[in-house]
Amino acid sequence: MKNFNLYIEQFDYTPIRELFRKKGQLRILKKREYFVRQNEVTQFVALIECGIFRYTCTSDDGNEHIMGYSFQGEFVCDYPSLILGSRTTVCIQAMTDCEVYWLPIHVLNQFWETNMDTQRMGRHAAEILFTEMYQRLLGFYCDTPEQRYIKLMRRCPDLKEKIPLKDIASFLGVTPETVSNIRRKLRYK
């Protein structure tokens, strides 16, 4: 699968992955187990060796909304909570059995402070994450649901085999019926 999270394609994360494998703790999370729950303060970031995580938030009316995913070879954490030391606004849950290298944030921060190259690497990674989130926000304002679906499927054509339709719909900010209608319409084009 092409990378769901574009940040992973725009930078060589090899030194960071090596840090996780060398200093991180290998952990197994079972399907539906939480990496972090909403309103907790996260102190860890992880490298996903295998598995899929989903990011959800629950609105005041009790509805759960899919905010994103992390896949094999990517990192999993609630970035704002990690950098600000604030409570998380999302739950991060394993959608499959997952193997991750779990690393305390203070170890990653020590790595960033090693030298100018690692500081640049950390800044560049943060800039890429910001840009990706900004583009997604613009997509919600400027693209139709059909355009968002097409962009997602072009980027990750096999996503529909890994993620249930209702979760794809939630991620796109539409109903499952809307996604079904979009798929039907595209089939007949």
From TrEMBL:
InterPro entries cross-referenced by the UniProt entry: cNMP-bd_dom, cNMP-bd_dom_sf, RmlC-like_jellyroll
Listed Gene3D superfamilies: Jelly Rolls
Boundaries of every Cyclic nucleotide-binding domain copy: 27-115
CDD domains reported for this sequence: CAP_ED
A Pfam family recorded for this sequence: cNMP_binding
Protein name as it appears in the record: Crp/Fnr family transcriptional regulator
Lineage: Bacteria, Pseudomonadati, Bacteroidota, Bacteroidia, Bacteroidales
